[in-house]
From TrEMBL:
Coiled coil: none annotated. This is DNA repair photolyase. CDD domains: Radical_SAM. Keywords: Iron, Iron-sulfur, Lyase, Metal-binding. It comes from Salegentibacter echinorum. InterPro entries: Elp3/MiaA/NifB-like_rSAM (IPR006638), MJ0683-like (IPR040086), rSAM (IPR007197), rSAM_sf (IPR058240). The keyword Iron-sulfur applies.
Length: 358
């Protein structure tokens, strides 16, 4: 059970953390906290702020052999979803912010994302290759409802008949069913929906500002009914938190129309280890030590693992049990379903934004 007294409602990370690239750090002193308490003031703001950025490029080459994508595109940096385990937290330090609360409260908006994508897709040197939205942070996080950058990006992919993948845990993707249907007609899109648990209580503490489990299952169903290819990622699997849900989760999403299910094992690299440790001791004090020790058993005695080939799946007895459960679950609930290979052949004809006549 969580310690409500110390818990910051609506946030994953429970503290600000020092940026390792900065020489100086900030500390909340007890005398300042006592002053704020006596005056009825907040010691630190819980509001989200948007920061406009104008990068020079938007499509990123992905060199990791573990993540299954060649290129990614992230219209936002930082993510208000607040998933406590998120590997992208570390990347916020490169922008000059912390991986803790800063990651959830300071959202960088790439205002020229659409123009940069159009420039890339219309380039004579660009050869069609899969581009995945949300390789780092969710393209359908809450601010997208207002800004609609992701929707405009999808319209650009459609205009140039270019293949696109989507990774999200937000039901807001349903808003763009009209564009997704058109992309799917030419076999140009695949949606990967993240479903970490079937328990709403678990969802609320792990991923505080994400769509409910009910809405995510509904989203899988609606995408499937619209003939839009959809798969599910159970990512990450965390021992003693959601590790017991593999069989029922695969069964549930298969009944909703998912074509496949993948998974990753939790890994807590960089600043995330300290953030997660602080979070679980405040949120689940009764099992904190057990969970932390089990995570360490997956990564050779450490919360951290950066080795290609093992970092996503872990190693040891527990990792083997998880892999075996997924093998059984797929054979039982997903037999005969295949993930469609998307089309990269149309783009050359539409490189100027319309079909070539001659």
């Amino acid at each position: 059970m969580s310690n409500a007294k110390n818990h910051i409602k609506g946030r994953g990370a429970q503290k600000k953390v020092h940026n390792r690239f900065f020489e100086h750090s900030h500390e909340l002193r007890d005398d300042f906290l006592n002053y704020c308490a006596s005056e009825g003031e907040e010691a630190q703001s819980s509001k989200t702020s948007l920061i406009d950025t104008f990068p020079k490029t938007i499509v990123n080459k992905v060199n990791s052999p573990d993540v299954g994508m060649n290129y990614s595109l992230n219209p936002y940096q930082g993510c208000e979803h607040g998933c406590i385990y998120c590997y992208a937290r570390n990347s916020h330090e490169y922008w000059g912010y912390g991986a803790g609360l800063d990651f959830e409260q300071k959202i960088l908006v790439k205002r020229n994302a659409v123009e940069l994508l159009e420039k890339k897709l219309s380039s004579a040197r660009w050869e069609a290759s899969p581009i995945v939205l949300s390789g780092n942070t969710d393209c359908y996080q809450p601010i997208e409802k207002k800004l609609k950058i992701t929707r405009k990006l999808l319209q650009t992919f459609l205009k140039y008949r270019h293949r696109v993948g989507i990774i999200t845990k937000n039901a807001l993707v349903q808003r763009d069913l009209d564009i997704l249907r058109e992309l799917a007609q030419d076999n140009l899109v695949h949606v990967n929906l993240s479903v970490t648990s079937l328990s709403e209580e678990t969802r609320r503490i792990l991923e505080p500002r994400t769509a409910s489990i009910k809405k995510r299952l509904e989203t899988i169903e609606k995408l499937s009914e619209a003939n839009i290819p959809v798969s599910v990622m159970m990512a990450p699997i965390i021992p003693s938190i959601n590790s017991h849900e593999i069989m029922p989760l695969v069964k549930e999403v298969s009944e909703r129309g998912a074509l496949g299910v993948g998974y990753t094992i939790v890994r807590l690299n960089g600043a995330i280890g300290g953030i997660f440790r602080d979070w679980i001791k405040k949120t689940m004090p009764d099992r904190a030590d057990k969970v932390l020790h089990q995570i360490e058993s997956l990564h050779g005695g450490s919360l951290n693992d950066s080795r290609f080939g093992t970092r996503m799946k872990g190693e040891g007895e527990f990792a083997s049990q998880v892999a075996q459960q997924f093998k059984i679950a797929k054979a039982k609930y997903l037999k005969g379903r295949e993930r469609t290979v998307l089309n990269c052949d149309l783009h050359e004809e539409f490189k100027n934004g319309q079909m070539k006549l001659f």
